[in-house]
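README: folding subset

This subset contains proteins for which both the sequence and a predicted structure token string are available. Records are stored as plain text. Below is the entry for tRNA (guanine-N(7)-)-methyltransferase (233 residues), shown exactly as it appears on disk.
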Amino acid sequence: MDEQNNNPPQEPPRRAIKSFVTRAGRMGTGQIKALAELGPKFVLSYKAERLNTEQVFGRRAPLVLEIGFGMGGATAEIAQTLPDYDFIGCEVHEPGVGALLKLIDEKQLSNIRIVQHDAVEVLRDMIGPDLLAGVHIFFPDPWHKKRHHKRRLIQPEFVARLVQHIAPGGYLHCATDWQPYAEQMLEVLSAEPALLNTAAGYADKPAYRPLTKFENRGIKLGHGVWDLVFRKR
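--- output ---
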């Protein structure tokens, strides 16, 4: 007779809620070429080990992390405007990675690197404590439906983890064109004891953040955009 196993059944590990859905996007020939030719130089492989940023960029400079750069237009423009800063962009969608690589080549930028991976894991495994001079989170998915609000990136747990990687005096800059999400962001960021709002509520758009075509179109239609800029105490 087989010996019975009296141990309780193991529950499967709880799956983390993702703030994004990986979509299959069409890759243009220019993006495919950029990935093949420029990817080895500018795309960093995700590894569960701390980045040596001086080795990666060949210099010591303030480091800004951008989470979800989309097609990379704002990222490239900001990097060109702020050449004394280095930028690491996290984006899971391959067409966006290819598009930013094209812009890096066109603008001859040397201060951007890309990690095509979930930013939560990149933060946890690759970014050291107090390393970042700033973090940019521009127009994250607002997850409009109430049942999907748990997928929004800006949540107390994520922000508490994020501030561990920002240097004292460093900043967190978020922007959204969805007012209910802006209100949630303001509530969550204001409740984080390590952060201090630089404005009395929402901030004026900092000069370094360019207006996107989508944003310009929305402004002409009377749509709002909300910037939030907080500093780490």
